Amino acid sequence: MFTPLFLIAAQSVTPFGSPAPEILQPSKSQGSVEQRFNKCIDLAVDDPQSGLTEANTWLIEGGGFLARHCLGFAYAEQFNWAAATTAFVESAQAAEVARDKRIDKFWAQAGNAALAGGDAVKALEYLNAALVQGSLKGLAKGLVHLDRARAHVALEDYPAAKAEFAMVHQLAPEDPLGWLLSATLARRMDDLELARNDILIADQRAPGDPAIALEAGNIAFESGDQINAKTNWEKAVQIDAESQSARIAQKYLNQLVTKVKE
Questions:
Q1: Which residues have C-beta within 8 Å of that of residue 208, sequence separation ≥ 6?
Q2: Plot region of 22 (φ>0 → left; ψ -120 to 50 → alpha; else → beta)
Q3: Strand, helix or coil at 3?
Q4: Could you report the per-residue pLDDT of 1-30, keeping only the tens digit for each?
Q5: Cβ distance 88 to 106 under 8 Å?
Q6: Cβ 131 vs Cβ 144: under 8 Å
Q7: Among 11, 46, 146, 227, which has the highest number of CB atoms less than 10 A from its own CB?
Q8: CA–CA separation, 242 and 247 (whole Å)
Q9: Whole-angstrom Cα distance, residue 91 to residue 106?
Q10: CA triplet 19, 24, 25: central angle to 5 degrees?
Q11: What percent of the chain clears pLDDT 90, i.e. is strictly above it?
Q12: What is the tens place of the pLDDT at every residue in 164-206?
C-alpha cells in the first residue's frame, strides 16, 4: 500500500504564493512613506530579523498599517505564521479605514498566512475579504482562488476545492501549481481521467519539476500502470534527489521493488 500524498504547500518569493503588496509610484507628498515601505519589505525578505527591527521602529514612529504589513512579512519569512497572520489582519483592517488601494492584497496575504499556519477556516474568511473588494484581476485573483482551493482541501470539502481550481485555471492558466494540485485532488476523488489531463498540463507548464513527476507517478500507479509509475518516480529522483518530492518518490520505488520480490 502506498502512502497517499496531497501536496498543498508551494514555496515562492512571497509566502506560499500569495500576492505581494503592490509597489506604488510615490507622489511628492507620500514619496518618502512609500519608499520606506518598499525598502522595509525588501529588508524583511532579505533579512527577516532586521526587517522585524525596522518594522517595529517604524511602527513606533507612526508607520501605521504599512509598517504593520512589513512586520507581517518579516514574521512570514521566519515561518511565524501566527504572528504574521495577526500583523496582516491588523494591517488590512487599518488599510480599510484609510481606504488604501491595496486592501485586497493585504487581506490576501492575511489569508495566505492563516492557511500556512493551519487555520483553514480563518484563511477562507480573510481570502473572502480580499475577493469582496472586487479589485483583484488576473493572476493575483487566481492565486487567491488557489489559496481558497487549498483551504477547502484542508477542510476536506473536495467539491468546493474543485470549483475553486476551475477558477484558478480560468484566471491563471499558465500557473503550473494550480494544475498540479488540481490533478492531485482529481486523483483523490478517483477521477483519474481528469487527473491525467491536469498533470499533463502541469508538466507542459513546468517541465522538469520533481513534484509534478512524483504526482504523475502517483496517478499512473492509481491507474494500474506500474511501468509509467516507476518511470515518473525515477524521473523525480533524477531531477533533484535532495528534494522532498524525490525522497517520497524513492520511498515508493523501494516499496515497488519489495512488492515485486514478494
A1: 239
A2: beta
A3: coil
A4: 333 222 233 322 233 344 444 433 444 445
A5: yes
A6: yes
A7: 146
A8: 7
A9: 7
A10: 150
A11: 85
A12: 999 999 999 999 999 999 999 999 999 999 999 999 999 999 9
What are the angstrom distances between the C-alpha of 119 and each of 114, 115, 132? 5, 5, 20
Burial class of residue 126 (count of CB atoms within 10 Å of its CB; 0-12, 13-18, 19+): buried
Distance from C-alpha of 186 to C-alpha of 158, rounded to nearest angstrom: 9
Q: What angle do CA 102, 105, 110 make, to 5 degrees?
A: 125
Give the three cell numbers for residue 111.
489569508
Long-range CB contact pairs, 66-69, < 8 A, 24+ = 66/33, 66/36, 66/37, 66/40, 66/91, 67/37, 67/40, 68/94, 69/21, 69/37, 69/95, 69/106, 69/109
Helix (H) or strand (E) segment spanning residue 64: helix 64-77
Helix (H, G, I), strand (E, B) or coil at 137: coil
Q: Are 130 and 108 a contacting pair, CB within 8 Å?
A: yes
> What cell was used for 184?
492531485
CB < 8 Å & 24+ apart, contacts of 56-63 = 63/36
Q: Which residues contact 252 (CB under 8 A, 6 or more apart)?
A: 2, 3, 217, 218, 221, 229, 233
Residue 192, C-alpha cell as written in the block: 483519474
List all residues 6 or more positions away from 133 whose beta carbon is below 8 Å from its beta carbon.
103, 104, 107
Instruction: Compute the 3-state secondary structure of the chain and give helix, strand, coil in percent, each to the nearest 5.
Output: 75, 0, 25
